[in-house]
Structures
1.
Amino acid sequence: MANGSRQAAWEFFGTELRRQREEVGMTQAELGSRVFVSGAYIGQFEQAFRKPQLDISQRIDAVLQTDGIFERLCRKLIDDKRYADYFAPVVEFERTATRICEFAPTVVPGLLQTAAYAGAVTIAANPFVTDEYVEEIVAARRERAQILKGTTTPEYWVVLHESVLRVPVGGPQAMAEQLDCIARLMRSRTVWLTVVPFTAGAHASMAGSLKLMEFSDTPPITYTETAFSGTLIDDPGVVKRAQRAYDLLRVAALSPEASLALVESAAEDFRRCASTT
């Protein structure tokens, strides 16, 4: 589904939500309290500023007794088999974010991955899949990266742990090309990227990756991910803690200049390794 038609569908979701809510004589605040979000969030859903998660849509159906219409609409809009169920809503939020701040402790973030790197990561996690499946997953990641090239490009801040630069995903040549790509994006100021070096020791997000997304007219949200699941969080208190953790990661990281030098040095190391094999 194209971005424009998808947004129109979310607007229909919001219009229908408002109609059903008003039909039973319930205010936004009343509905919000029943589905465990604020009344302001209900208003943002109705204006299609914010997209509700599946569990919220299910609770709305239960409260308004709408026979599953909002669950079905939500499933339809986030149903992209190229993404895990828990990640599909994140893709929608990335498209409307004004700023994305990401910490990656082990793997290059999807928005920065080259085709070879993305393919190697996919095969490592799914060794028996077909070439067609790998191509589809790689295409989806490359499609996501288009948000960094559009007229409404979000600010993209990335903190990598040095381990991301050292593991030869896809082999030395593929890794050299991946790091060269990151260096080009840094030099063109498409991404503001810094690296937490090994020497920094323990850091503020030892449990896994972290993504913060800010929007022009709705509150920020955060997304955390482990090997087999991910969680979108919009609770203001938790988001504030995530923002503090990200601030601490940035403090622990090298300067942008030193980070670029480290990325380029690691790329050259892999290039030398590739030339001797």
Note: Strands lie at 99-104, 155-161, 192-196, 209-214, 221-225, 230-233.
2.
Amino acid sequence: MAEHHFYLKANWPGLRNDIGTIETLNMKTAVSIPTEMDGPGIGTNPDEMLLGAAATCYIITLAAMLERSRVDKESLTMESIGIVDYKNGIVTYNKIIHKPVIILTEGMANKRNMVERLAMKAETSCMISRALQGNVEVTVEPTIK
């Protein structure tokens, strides 16, 4: 695969607590500082977008790994948590926890251990997780049924 460029346009019309916009090829949304950080909380924010990038990269990577391993599933859902710490006026994105729930189809019970290994491996195989490595801890807590 050759080098690929992604583009984003941003507009920030005011000061710290204003509301801006971002636009990519397939998304356009308002952005502002979240209320937890004394902002207006309109639209999304960088913290949610980083969590969204990590979560979507992880779940797509896991789905591809399950497909390559011929694992049939009824569903693959996930909740992810981003943990941000605020100390001495410095905001730090400390940790992301992915909690995938994989419900296997009937007859797949013998692949349970492999599915658990794939759930863990998907985190280190995901491009966004690799980009965060050394800065933000990313952990996985899978549930396989």
Note: The chain has two domains: 1-44, 46-144.
3.
Amino acid sequence: MTSLKRWSTAVLDTEVTGGWAVVNGEQGFLLDDNGVMFPREWLKAQDLPVIGEHGIGHFDGEPVFVLVLKGAVEIDGCRWQGLRQFMLEGDFAVFQKLGYAAQISTWTREHRYCGSCGRPTQQVPGERAMYCEHDKLRFYPRISPSMIVLITRGDEVLLARSPRFVTGVYSTLAGFVEPGESVEDCVHREVMEEVQLKIKDIVYMGSQCWPFPHSMMLGFHAQYESGDIVPQADEIEDARWFNIHDLPPLPASRSIARYLIDSYVAQRLGTAEPVLPG
């Protein structure tokens, strides 16, 4: 069974009983020796500091809800784990489910009150929206479009590292789309800002929802045109050309960054191309 069949999003009625739930709080996601899904009614009996509950979809055919907590809490026999750790290990379908739950949790915390008048908002039945009765405003989960691009020059790929990366890991360039610009404009701008290079022949490769916290990553391949690498201060710790036969430590295999790199390497070597996860 594929991950796409195992997990699907949906707006579920929180007034119904039963089902399973995941718990998101300041410490990440709650889990025990059986995993991250708990009987929903059992969780509700634990007197947790819940600030919101949302029905988020179905996993292996079972309804799943997320309980959003205010503050840190400890539960006997359970522990907490961050979303990135779920990305690096275990079942990718579980990461998809938790990634969506994390985005809904962020939205819940950020829109408990109206951004215009400050009054409490209410969930809209049957719709993924919070509503302010006073201002007649609806607030939907935010998705921020961003680009990620692999720049190549023959058998060489341009990879860089941010100070925020795991030590030694290099990845592709990425950045958020600014208001008023196309994604293609963003690719050119970000590459120039981050490494001072001109690129050409931009080709769209695919997209991936990236819940850190709410990005939609649009992946591209581009060819080098001209310029010398000049890393952007405070943003790029190092950037250089790597031969495909001598690559540094790379991002997680489930990421779109790794997909872009692996796809190009496969193309140059004439091997089977990878499949974009998600």
Note: The chain has six helices and 16 strands.
4.
Amino acid sequence: MGNYNGDPQHIVTPLEGIQKAFAQSTISYAKGCNVIDTPNYNPKKDFEAALSTAAKAEVIIFVGGISPRLEGEDLKVKVPGFLGGDKTDLNLPTVQTALLKELKKLGKPIVLVLLNGSALAINWEEENLDAIVETWYGGERGGEALADVLTGKYNPAGRLPVTFYRSINDIPTFDDYSMVGKTYRYVNKPVLYPFGYGLSYTNFNYSNLRLSTNKLDKNNTLKVSLTLINTGTYDGDEVVQLYIKQEGEGMPIKELKGFKRVHVKKGEKREVSFELKVSDIQHYNAKIDDLATVSGKVQLMIGPSSAKVALLGSFDLK
């Protein structure tokens, strides 16, 4: 349920949602393990039950992640990975990865479903599992939403609002208020999943970038247009993202300046457009203690995430 939530009369769990959606199939369940490993917990029996159940299955759906009882504000928690509601690393709790490694040995397809409120460094999982579904804390009907995605009733189009780093060591400590190395705007190391990243059951092609002018000043507006084609076999939504980059000391590596979620049927194409004004491209100026325009060349990048550029252009900012 996450934090700051009410108490619904009934919560549709992932298990209930899957059982309902796959009513014609045999759904077998085993606990697997606790969310975290603690000194008083021996996961052997839980592992054995999970492996026995999974050995008879065609597909394994592993619902894991963390918990609002571990991550939150001012919690009285001190366990490996968590301290007072803060995280001391980004990994999936070790007991969960240990069970996933045992399940992997069975040779079955594995779908990892994550329930969490913050980014995780799931490096082994990314390399070894067949699918990963990020559900965050789904709320009272999250199990239904998950089942809709797993069955293909709904073609997902969510995009990450945060960066998933590879390691806690890739992020400067948060008692350092400099933004260097933090967020997609300043990170200069390879990441696991970039800001704006997300997959669906179809594919899209970007083409035909057009700019209404190559000079933007306070007297005009820049219109940016492109063609988007659904090249896959399913109808779906694409989240088209527009980023810019300006050269100069202290400037971000890139900045999101617009995004549009567009529904495109399979085989069809849509025209997508953005508008930029001078007031959209300003940065803090310490000398005047306010936002100001920095004149010069601006690089324009359009794609499906902050890390993937499908179309590239530029214009002059006055």
Note: The chain has two domains: 14-154, 204-317.
